[in-house]
Write a structure and sequence with these properties.
This protein is mainly alpha-helical. About 45% of the residues lie in helices and about 5% in strands. The protein contains 19 helices and 9 strands. The strands form 4 sheets. It has a 3-stranded antiparallel sheet, with no helix packed on it. A two-stranded antiparallel ribbon has the order 4-5. Strand 8 and strand 9 form a beta hairpin. Helix 4 crosses helix 6 and helix 8 packs across helix 12. The N and C termini lie far apart (about 75 Å).
Length: about 475
């Protein structure tokens, strides 16, 4: 019996191998068929299709009926002016200038390098220059780029351009932005090319990325929600593209939709959890505090915008109307709260320093000492007690006590502020903290950071010298 069985076994192995090979072939064929169906569906819809699920936008009407009018009876010159003004506002909402400006003397001319895990993407020129910008783009080209992530030549755009969110913006709003961009001064400048690793430099592969990470289509209002909530959702999920920074990424660098708005690290900066969770998010903030933070970059006793968020406030959110800011707050309040494991809110840590100055008097310091470095470099503005100077005035030097950057569970943002400083210009104040990266070594920055978190914030939050060295290289 054993001999007969041993003779049968070798013959069975090739059969099993053939079955596995057939299964793999069938699976690949099914995937290819699905891909072919997707391409056919995508091409059938085409860039010119109109959608009926778009939010209406208010159109201004002028009183001067003597001017040439459009089909709706609106004087053409006024309608054009209103469209451009609306486009400028919407471009502010989308913060287009932030990514498409590397040199402030050449706004919207591109050239900003964006570091990604697969290489560097350089932003394009979107001024009306016909040779190096988008001066020869048609309206259909512009709509297709915004809604589908496809450039004028049919090339796939990389998702550093947030078409994943912009696809939700109505045709009318996209065309308003287009009208505004046409009025910009054309700048003849060709930014350098991307430097991406193979195979990520093959744009056609974005087809597969889109299959898993992109759903093309305009925002659909929820009839069960208020107009204010829907406006907030339209802005946050669409043009303002808040998820790009505040939502973690999956292994394909797409947005991890199961953890929306729960926080993520971008270029060394931690974009914090903005869900209504009371410990990890902003659940203990009032509506007025959230609105003030968006409009001014400061919510005393809570947080002060730095890094990329300071740029967002400077270039974008401070220009939003009170109605739009209120709508954003309304929508954020409705998000499912996500707990990141924090034991208490970021802004509820810390006590004033008691006697560090007295203790250091007459003491010889032979090693890197965080308290000494803090008093020498930081106390002039933040007070040696850490309580700041100027209370809650617009130009105040903020307190380090009850401060999100100091009480966070990681010390990234605090170290980044010390290294790179803070620049935030609003209608209320021109905030400037100098960068100490050229003045202090990595071990000195680490020492100050750890002293500040231990004394004024979350004592469990620390940073190593190696971490500071890595953060120093971030843009």
């Amino acid at each position: 019996m054993m001999k007969n069985t041993s003779r049968v076994q070798p013959a069975a192995l090739p059969v099993q191998s053939m079955r596995r090979r057939r299964f793999r072939v069938a699976t690949l064929a099914a995937i290819f068929a699905l891909f072919a169906l997707y391409v056919a569906w995508h091409e059938a819809r085409g860039p010119g299709e109109r959608h009926n699920d778009e939010l209406p936008i208010t159109q201004a009407h002028a009183d001067d009926a003597s001017q040439p009018s459009d089909a709706a009876g609106t004087p053409a010159a006024v309608a054009s002016s209103d469209l451009v003004k609306r486009g400028e506002y919407l471009a502010r909402v989308g913060d287009c200038v932030a990514c498409h400006t590397a040199d402030k003397s050449r706004p919207f001319a591109g050239g900003l390098p964006i570091n990604t895990p697969v290489g560097t993407i350089v932003t394009p020129n979107i001024t009306p220059d016909p040779d190096t910008g988008i001066g020869q783009w048609s309206d259909a080209d512009f709509l297709r780029a915004m809604h589908e992530g496809i450039g004028k030549g049919g090339e796939r755009l990389y998702p550093a351009f947030p078409y994943v969110e912009y696809t939700k913006v109505t045709d009318q709003d996209v065309m308003a932005i287009r009208a505004y961009l046409k009025t910009l001064t054309p700048i003849h400048y060709a930014p350098p090319g991307n430097t991406l690793k193979f195979p990520f430099n093959q744009r056609w592969l974005m087809v597969f990325w889109n299959l898993f990470n992109f759903n093309e289509g305009r925002f659909v209002p929820d009839p069960k929600q208020s107009a204010e909530w829907n406006r907030g959702a339209y802005l946050v999920e669409g043009l303002a593209h808040c998820e790009e920074c505040h939502t973690p990424r999956n292994f394909m660098q797409g947005l991890k939709t199961s953890s929306r708005f729960s926080g993520a690290v971008q270029a060394g900066w931690h974009a914090y959890n903005i869900t209504p969770d009371k410990n990890s998010g902003v659940g203990n903030w009032s509506d007025d505090e959230l609105a003030a933070y968006l409009s001014t970059g400061a919510a005393p006793g809570r947080a002060n915008a730095a890094g990329p968020m300071a740029e967002v406030v400077t270039d974008s959110t401070q220009y939003l109307t009170q109605e739009d800011v209120g709508s954003i707050v309304k929508y954020l309040r409705s998000l499912p709260p996500i707990n990141g494991g924090e034991s208490r809110p970021r802004d509820q840590w810390g006590n004033p320093a008691a006697d560090d100055v007295t203790t250091l008097r007459g003491t010889t310091v032979n090693a890197v000492n965080g308290a000494q470095l803090f008093i020498a470099n930081c106390a002039t503005c933040h007070n040696w007690t850490g309580q700041g100077i100027g209370a809650s005035a617009p130009g105040a030097y903020p307190s380090l006590i009850h401060n999100s950057a100091v009480g966070a569970s990681d010390a990234n943002n605090l170290a980044m502020v010390i290294l790179h400083g803070v620049t935030r210009t609003t209608k209320q104040a021109d905030v400037l903290m100098p960068a100490f990266g050229t003045e202090l070594t990595d071990d000195q920055v680490a020492a100050i950071t750890n002293y500040v978190t231990k004394q004024f914030g979350n004592p469990q939050s620390t940073v190593t010298v190696d971490q500071v060295a890595r953060l120093r290289t971030q843009q």
